[in-house]
Amino acid sequence: MSREPFEGVTPELDEMIVETPMGSLVIYRSHDTEYPGVYIDLRRDGCDCDAPLTMVEFTATECDQDEPAIITRVWDDVRKEDHQTRVVHSGIEEYFREGR
Question: What are the domain boundaries of the chain?
Fold first, then answer.
């Protein structure tokens, strides 16, 4: 399935920005080639740093996984340095085998 590029993508910065009433969602690529993925942060004008919301990444080496996985890490409390929630997505291979 072919998709059109998102509006607001800035190739030179490798990010996409989606405006919301609470601020701008900034989606950008992780540059770790062993764990490719994307981050989503919340940005507000006048603030020096963005609030981390989530990261979705591929991992082949997560210590408690027997096989490669897609993992989402969520900062429930954006004031904390480390994420608080981790979701290991399941059913991916079955989903695509079923031809959805």
Answer: 9-97
